[in-house]
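Q: I'm building a small set of examples for a reading group on sequence design. Run inverse folding on the following structure and report the sequence directly after it, with nothing in between.
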């Protein structure tokens, strides 16, 4: 092992897993440090008694090619599924469900594949639907790489393109809040344009929705650890990096990493480091001057919470027309609701007729500090208003999960606070969905960042003469 380049990846979320796997596959000696007892970061699972609970309701799109490739590489392809074509049931109290469903690929190319669904979208007036189509076509022409685009809010752009408050609430935010973790008025136009262009307006199949059919921990922790071990990665959980210390004078190593473990303190000596942790921990760990950002950059980038309200009923309350396993809501505090019955093992815990739903609430700044009892008082009646069968059902269990810092805040100006994978210090790289991936804070962005950091590391290593590297 002494002749192999030693790489330490700090952080076992999707970015760290992707970086570690890529480096190991190229023959480097990789150690992955994760401060938690599990891998997966915010896209993981825990158990509540015998119930498997995901930390958040994560979906992906067909265009999320880096994430889908990672799932295949870790041997978990049988734990995800992908729609044959985009289909989103949209519920409103007292109304029949609407469907946002694209046409088959053989009929209409993008962006016309959504025209019929938008023109039939009953939650908007006919005039609003027509203006919606015109705005969608205009959004497809926005230059998302222009700094001026990033400096503008999506809400302002929508207003300038004839979008009413109703259209924002019933359509644009229905997609945008879930993907950007921000409402249109708070979101960067560049990030919004990325989501809509890549997911809905360029390739007709790109927006088809995928999700896990097993607990996320089975994919991002269990399967990931097996794949990392098979690639030769030393995975060390419950191991917290205290600092990243440049030490060029130390024989055989350029960096020292003090690590706190359940057994005490120790120190790793390594040639390269990929720091794949969230912005706040990254700013604390990275040496001064490593990134071309002002002090306090992590606070300026900010974070946004996600809250989930979990409810188990004694019977099925999602109607048979909701055959997708999820639905969006309008005219209700319920943003998205997911059927988690199969993935969670709820039938074994609560009985074969029980149904376990999770209400996912993004951009939840006003909810994250609310007591669980108050959240139940708000969302249980809201579910009954959306799902008539819930009114006669018995609630067997309910609880709340929160991710106070689920994603970075995708506000106007965010691009200037998102660095690329290289730092100013040789041998030190950064990864994470918050880095400059061109994507919002998604699983896809996280995986892309890890691959980008590993590729930068490998390219720099290849550029060093062999006698210097030795």
């Amino acid at each position: 092992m002494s002749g192999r380049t030693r790489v330490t990846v700090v952080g076992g979320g999707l970015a760290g897993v992707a970086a570690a796997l890529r480096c190991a596959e190229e023959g480097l000696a990789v150690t992955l440090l994760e401060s938690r007892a599990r891998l997966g970061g915010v896209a993981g699972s825990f158990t509540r008694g015998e119930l498997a609970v995901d930390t958040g309701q994560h979906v992906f799109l067909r265009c999320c090619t880096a994430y889908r490739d990672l799932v295949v590489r870790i041997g978990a392809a049988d734990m995800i599924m992908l729609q044959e074509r985009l289909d989103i049931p949209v519920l409103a109290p007292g109304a029949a469900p609407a469907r946002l469903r694209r046409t088959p690929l053989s009929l209409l190319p993008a962006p016309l594949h959504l025209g019929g669904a938008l023109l039939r979208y009953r939650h908007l007036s006919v005039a609003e639907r027509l203006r919606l189509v015109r705005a969608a076509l205009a959004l497809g022409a926005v230059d998302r790489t222009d700094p001026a685009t990033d400096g503008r809010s999506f809400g302002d752009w929508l207003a300038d393109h004839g979008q009413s408050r109703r259209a924002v609430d019933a359509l644009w935010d229905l997609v945008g809040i879930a993907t950007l973790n921000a409402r249109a008025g708070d979101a960067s136009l560049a990030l919004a344009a990325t989501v809509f262009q890549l997911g809905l307006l360029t390739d007709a199949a790109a927006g088809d929705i995928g999700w896990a059919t097993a607990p996320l921990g089975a994919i991002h922790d269990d399967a990931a650890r097996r794949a990392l071990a098979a690639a030769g990665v030393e995975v060390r959980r419950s191991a917290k990096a205290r600092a990243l210390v440049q030490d060029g004078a130390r024989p055989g190593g350029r960096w020292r990493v003090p690590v706190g473990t359940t057994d005490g303190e120790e120190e790793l000596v390594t040639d390269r480091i990929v720091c794949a942790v969230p912005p706040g921990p990254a700013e604390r760990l990275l040496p001064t001057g490593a990134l071309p950002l002002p002090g306090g950059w992590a606070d300026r980038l900010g974070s946004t919470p996600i809250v989930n309200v979990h409810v188990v009923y004694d019977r099925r309350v999602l109607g048979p027309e909701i055959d997708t396993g999820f639905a969006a809501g309008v005219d209700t505090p319920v943003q998205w609701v997911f059927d988690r019955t199969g993935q969670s093992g709820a039938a074994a815990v609560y009985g074969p007729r029980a149904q376990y739903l999770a209400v996912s609430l993004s951009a939840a700044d006003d909810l994250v500090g609310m007591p669980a009892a108050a959240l139940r008082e708000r969302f249980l009646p809201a579910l009954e208003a959306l799902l008539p069968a819930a009114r006669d059902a018995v609630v067997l269990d309910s609880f709340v999960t929160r991710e106070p810092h689920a994603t970075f805040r995708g506000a106007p100006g965010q691009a200037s606070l998102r660095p690329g994978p290289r730092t100013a210090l040789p041998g030190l790289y950064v990864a994470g969905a918050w880095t400059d991936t061109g994507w919002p804070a998604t699983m896809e962005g996280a995986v892309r960042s890890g691959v980008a950091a590993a590729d930068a590391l490998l390219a720099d290593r290849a550029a060093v003469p062999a006698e210097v590297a030795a």
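The first strand starts at residue 6 and ends at 10.
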